[in-house]
């Protein structure tokens, strides 16, 4: 049964010769074939390439040992460029786009021996919190297929949660890794902005986007981060600060650490079971020697407003390149009218949520409005960052809910963008501040839906978050479950 | 009423970096369409720009050469507009924190030197090029030029006449060529200019309504376009009409400017800081390092040539118009320290020859040391000036040294007085009629005798010595006959 395997068990089995790489890959594909029609986690499955790679490993078994992820199947969110594999970004405008190059994180994973099994579904251009805004249909939550898996990395989260793949890459702009990880009951880490190269990540909001790992276990996430983190000469915003030894440090002692409880994150209406779970989690941390302290991040409530100015502004510019001239969809190809080609291509190619954000972003950057909106939002962002800097003088990490409520029903919020945007209220501030955040699964609620919490750390302290998460899971003897499907 | 023009120029120069502004593609000109391209300069999904350090260095060079203040923090910004030659539909440029501001340039005008202010210099990337099918309603895009680094240099509206505008542009072009940051080629588009121009009654402080002129791609066109626009605007004002603020296109074939778009139709570029590029810090030590490598600029060099070599202003101007020519001159002078003679030979002989062949000084087959040797041979009277010119021709053709040619052809000037006296006596003996004429007072005949002596010596006789010997000899005959 491959569904429950983590990287470690999988590698152990391969190295002991209990199964071949091909067998492993095939059994994941069998699962994908069986489950994906119901879950719709994958947009593209790259079976032939994966089998070819698997055979290479099997022909030369010591290469499995040589590479840290040798033979490990992985799914990649469809906004990360994969050479020779369609990369749609969940959009009709890129429905046939095959990149001529690999994103840096993809390249690093391949070099480490990982085998890409497919590209996962997402909200179009990563704009959304439910994976309903995909041109390829919504992804369903494996724990309750009537509910959303979260978004925008809903495909990656659902694929991992349902055991169609052991690990996956997601991207997070305002919560897009942490929120679906939470909804699907897996571990998802958004690294510090600049920790992982964005080269090859199809941009949504450049100053917020970050690539991160998703897996069933903290160890899996640490292993992936170890491979993808680090400075990249192709990304001027990537940082050359040394990469920690995430895996080696994972079991370090944490009993002198302090966790901060930010009061603003608990002053909202939160689902009682989520509230209850976090209180229990705090108790568990205290029981293993972690101290807790009350802290305040006074500008938290402005996060949503600032985010929904900055992100659409950047998106409106980033998405200008989809014009029908060079690649992707071109509507009206026979009529010799440039403006009409632009209008038709973009009208047909983009979905309603993307259009909404392009309009919003174009507006806030317009002459006469720039100062009032974009400039002001940037100032608010600086204050939010300052909140975190001050809070981290008193603690090593913050504990917060990931979302105010559990996964909602498919279609429930799709016509109410504001309600949808508020779902990101607890994940947005860390994105704006550029600090790392991790979503940690804890247990199932009374309806059998996963509940967890978020830890937020200071810049480049992913290690702290992983150690705390690992210690928590060790203490509760966490054993990831796979939903009955 | 008399009107004056107020002109400000925006110059775009293409930088001579080997690679593009934000990717590793070559900037080589004239390649087949879409061969100097990669995912980055094609604006593929997911790509990111990484700034070219050399381009920033070039910008600092120009900032120093134009007396600008260099910003310690540089921010790239996006200028958003849709056009098919712009791969991302935004151009990475600079807006709020350009690399340099508040400089000036000194230009020569007919009323003497003038300072023209520079508002700012900023870095940006070039766009591609559209090629329209003449037969079908089809357009093609060539992205080879997309992403080539540019600097935009914006002048203050300090320029008053088309002549000053031309002088400003020539001065700026000389500087960028001297700095080795741009080839200054207007025809190939590596040095482009737009002009903002308004007119106002002389004495009026407020500026008139301006128009922006585009598509002026040669010095001649700039002069003509500005002259036309001044006439057009002045005529409007004189008729009591208003100038409309708009962008106008220069039509070189018709010699007129044509309205392109008005202020209302102008783009809203929605500038904002490019989040893909972190602000670039330029510290003092970097500037100082670059300053050390800065060459002497054309203006100061011209002044130095006048002072140090006592050259006329005109010679200095010609010699310093090209950095390599100026270096050549100084090299020759260092070996043969008679600057005016060196300058004469370079300007009248060498440049004539080079111009004939459409070559520049770096193509010259005559090296500085060979030219110095030739001048030395003239100066010590080894050869005459006339012989020297034919030696020069041969040097240019063959690349041989002057002394080798003189040796091989036996062109050494004859200065042996005893030998020449014999020749002079012969010539006098052979031409009694001319002697007769001389005795009757026809002094001019002396030229005939010189010619005869030269003929007998294949032109190698020292003409001054021949002259002297002839006069003495004829004087003797005259005295004898009295
Ligand atoms: Zn390129």
Describe the overall structure.
The complex is a heterodimer of chains A (about 475) and B (about 475). By secondary structure, chain A is α/β, with parallel strands linked by helices. Among the domains of chain A are: about 5-255, Alpha-Beta Complex (Amidase signature (AS) enzymes); about 300-380, no CATH class. Chain A is built from 16 helices and 11 strands. Chain A has helices spanning about 5-15, 20-40, 45-60, 60-65, 105-110, 155-160, 180-185, 220-230, 270-285, 305-320, 340-350, 350-365, 370-390, 415-420, 430-435, 460-475; strands at about 40-45, 75, 115-120, 165-170, 185-190, 210-215, 260, 290-295, 395-400, 435-445, 450-455. Chain A has an 11-stranded mixed sheet with strand order 1-3-2-4-6-5-10-11-9-7-8, sandwiched between helices. In chain A, helix 8 (about 220-230) packs antiparallel against helix 16 (about 460-475) and helix 10 packs across helix 12 (about 350-365). The longest helix of chain A is centred in the last third of the chain and has 21 residues, at about 370-390. Chain A is globular and about 65 Å long. The two termini of chain A are about 15 Å apart. In chain B, the strands form 4 sheets. A 9-stranded mixed sheet of chain B has the order 2-6-7-10-1-11-12-13-14. The N and C termini of chain B lie far apart (about 80 Å). In chain B, helix 5 packs across helix 6 (about 315-320). The radius of gyration of chain B is 31 Å and the shape is elongated. Chain B has 15 helices and 16 strands. Helix content of chain B is about 40%, strand content about 20%. Chain B has 3 domains: about 5-285, no CATH class; about 295-410, no CATH class; about 415-480, Orthogonal Bundle (Arc Repressor Mutant, subunit A). The mean pLDDT of chain B is about 90. Chain B has about 475 residues and is α+β, with helices and mostly antiparallel strands. Chain B has helices at about 55-65, 160-180, 220-240, 285-290, 300-310, 315-320, 325-335, 340-355, 370-380, 385-400, 400-410, 415-430, 430-440, 445-455, 465-480, and strands spanning about 5-15, 70, 75, 75-80, 90-95, 100-110, 110-125, 130, 140, 150-155, 190-200, 210-215, 245-250, 255-260, 270-275, 280. The interface of A and B includes residues 97, 198, 313, 367 and 374 of A.
């Amino acid at each position: 049964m491959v569904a429950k395997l983590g990287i470690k068990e999988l590698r152990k089995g391969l190295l002991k010769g209990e199964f071949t790489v091909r067998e492993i890959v095939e059994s994941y594909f069998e699962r994908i074939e069986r489950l994906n029609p119901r879950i719709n986690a994958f947009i593209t499955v790259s079976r032939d390439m994966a089998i070819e790679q698997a055979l290479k490993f099997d022909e030369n078994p010591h290469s499995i040992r040589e590479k840290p992820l040798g033979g490990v199947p992985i799914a990649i969110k469809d906004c990360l460029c994969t050479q020779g594999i369609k990369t749609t970004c969940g959009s009709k405008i890129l429905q046939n786009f095959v990149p001529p190059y690999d994103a840096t994180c993809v390249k690093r994973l391949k070099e480490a021996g990982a085998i890409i099994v497919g590209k996962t579904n997402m909200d179009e251009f990563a704009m959304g919190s439910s994976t309903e805004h995909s041109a390829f249909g919504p992804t369903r939550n494996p724990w309750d297929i009537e509910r959303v898996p979260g978004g925008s990395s809903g495909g990656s989260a659902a694929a991992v949660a349902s055991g169609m793949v052991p690990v996956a890459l997601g991207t997070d702009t305002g919560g897009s890794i942490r929120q679906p990880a939470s909804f699907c009951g897996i571990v998802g880490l958004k690294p510090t902005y600049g920790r992982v190269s964005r080269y090859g990540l199809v941009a949504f909001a450049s100053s917020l986007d970050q690539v991160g790992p998703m897996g069933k276990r903290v160890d899996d996430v640490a292993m992936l981060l170890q491979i993808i983190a680090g400075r990249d000469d192709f990304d001027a915003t990537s940082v050359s600060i040394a990469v920690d030894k995430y895996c080696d440090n994972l079991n370090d002692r944490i009993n002198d650490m302090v966790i901060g409880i930010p009061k603003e994150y608990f002053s909202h209406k939160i689902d009682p079971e989520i509230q209850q779970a976090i209180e229990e989690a705090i108790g568990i941390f205290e029981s293993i020697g972690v101290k807790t302290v009350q802290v305040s991040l006074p500008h938290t409530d402005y996060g949503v407003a600032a985010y929904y100015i900055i992100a659409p502004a950047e998106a409106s510019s980033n998405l200008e390149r989809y014009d029908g001239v060079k690649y992707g969809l071109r509507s009206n190809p026979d009529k010799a009218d440039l403006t009409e080609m632009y209008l038709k291509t973009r009208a047909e190619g983009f979905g309603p949520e993307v259009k909404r954000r392009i309009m919003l972003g174009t507006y806030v950057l317009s002459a006469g409005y720039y100062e009032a909106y974009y400039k002001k939002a940037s100032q608010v962002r600086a204050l939010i960052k300052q909140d975190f800097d001050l809070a981290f003088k008193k603690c090593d990490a913050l504990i917060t809910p990931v979302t105010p409520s559990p996964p909602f029903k498919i279609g429930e919020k799709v016509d109410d963008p504001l309600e949808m945007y508020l779902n990101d209220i607890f994940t947005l501030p860390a994105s704006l501040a550029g600090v790392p955040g991790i979503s940690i699964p804890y247990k199932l609620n009374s309806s059998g839906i996963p509940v967890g919490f978020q830890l937020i750390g200071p810049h480049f302290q992913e290690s702290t978050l992983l150690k705390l998460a690992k210690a928590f899971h060790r203490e509760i003897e966490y054993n990831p479950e796979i939903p009955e499907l | 009423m008399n009107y004056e023009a107020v002109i400000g120029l925006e110059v775009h120069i293409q930088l001579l970096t080997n690679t593009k502004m934000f990717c590793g593609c070559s900037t080589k000109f004239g390649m087949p369409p879409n061969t100097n391209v990669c995912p980055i300069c094609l604006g593929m999904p997911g790509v990111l720009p990484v700034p070219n350090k050399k381009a920033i260095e070039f910008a600092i060079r120009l900032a120093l050469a134009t007396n600008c203040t260099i910003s310690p923090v540089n921010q790239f910004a996006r200028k958003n507009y849709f056009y098919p030659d712009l791969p991302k539909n935004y151009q990475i440029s600079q807006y709020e924190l350009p690399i340099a501001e508040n400089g000036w340039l000194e230009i020569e005008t007919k009323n003497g030197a003038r300072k023209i202010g520079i508002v700012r210099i900023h870095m940006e990337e070039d766009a591609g090029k559209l090629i329209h099918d003449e037969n079908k309603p089809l357009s093609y895009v060539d992205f080879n030029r997309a992403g080539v680094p540019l600097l935009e240099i914006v002048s203050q509206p300090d320029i008053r006449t088309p002549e000053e505008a031309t002088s400003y542009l020539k001065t700026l072009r000389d500087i960028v060529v001297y700095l080795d940051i741009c080839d200054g080629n207007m025809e190939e588009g590596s040095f482009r200019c737009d002009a903002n121009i308004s007119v106002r009654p002389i004495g009026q402080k407020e500026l008139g309504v301006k128009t922006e002129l585009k598509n002026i791609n040669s010095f001649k066109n700039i002069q003509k376009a500005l002259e036309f626009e001044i006439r057009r605007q002045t005529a409007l004002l004189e008729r009591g009409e208003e100038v409309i603020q708009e962008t106008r296109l220069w039509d070189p074939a018709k010699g007129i400017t044509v309205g392109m778009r008005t202020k209302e139709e102008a783009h809203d570029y929605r500038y904002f800081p490019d989040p893909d590029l972190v602000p670039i810090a330029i510290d003092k030590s970097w500037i100082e390092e670059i300053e050390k490598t800065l060459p002497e600029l054309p203006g100061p060099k011209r002044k130095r040539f006048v002072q140090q070599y006592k050259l006329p202003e005109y010679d200095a101007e010609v010699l310093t118009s090209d950095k390599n020519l100026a270096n050549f001159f100084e090299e020759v002078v260092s070996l043969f320290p008679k600057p005016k003679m060196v300058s004469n030979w370079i300007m009248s002989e060498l440049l004539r020859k080079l111009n004939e062949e459409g070559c520049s000084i770096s193509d010259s087959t005559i090296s500085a040391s060979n030219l110095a040797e030739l001048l030395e041979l003239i100066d010590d009277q080894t050869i005459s000036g006339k012989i020297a010119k034919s030696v020069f021709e041969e040097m240019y053709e063959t690349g041989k040294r002057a002394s080798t040619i003189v040796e091989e052809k036996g062109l050494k000037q004859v200065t042996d007085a005893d030998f020449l006296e014999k020749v002079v006596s012969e010539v006098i003996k052979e031409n009694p009629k001319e002697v007769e004429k001389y005795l009757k007072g026809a002094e001019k005949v002396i030229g005939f005798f010189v010619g005869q002596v030269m003929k007998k010596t294949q032109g190698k006789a020292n003409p001054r010595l021949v002259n002297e010997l002839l006069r003495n000899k004829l004087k003797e005959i005259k005295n004898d006959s009295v």
